[in-house]
Amino acid sequence: MNRLEKYPEFIPGLKSLGSTCTVTQELFQCTQKYVCVLYGQLRDGDVNIARFNRFKVGQYSENTMPCTKDVLLQHTSRSSYQAYIWKCALQAIISPPPISEFGWEIKDGQVLVKWMTMPVAPDGILENVNCGCKSGCSTRRCACVKVELKCTGVCGCNGCVNVHDENNSMTDDNENDDFDDDVEAADMFD
Ligand SMILES: [Zn+2]
Ligand SMILES: [Zn+2]
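That is the input. Now the predicted structure with zinc ion docked in place:
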């Protein structure tokens, strides 16, 4: 079922996309909550917390976690800017602000998407806990296995067996209220 049909309370907020170029706080709160709902985190209104909750229950891969707040803000800015242009389609002249303030950057005369302005995870995860094993990550010689973490998208391993069971990945309306408190994962964020 279409999520918006199921959660119509998001419609007015999302409809306001493009009323102005700038992303209002109300709009961003609405998009954050909506993205949390898409990932089954009905109680969270903050994608970073939802992301962390997914991480704690072992959903380490990027497609089982919502994006970071920073990434979502860039994306919402681009959407809002584009929707604003479309909503002004009947005006002969509009003077929109520079796109470089709305989730794009200009490099060597080319327009590029600015995906994020800060790292997607703490340095400890991005730099230290990943591996490049050639033989499947089954022994403690694997850096990830050694610290009892599953391999992630940042690992460069081949034939990896140190992966999370995908059957437990995102399910409809799973609030994940009953997750185990994974103290080790939580400690990494301290
Ligand atoms: Zn490994
Ligand atoms: Zn691996």
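Residues 168-190 have pLDDT under 50 and may be disordered.
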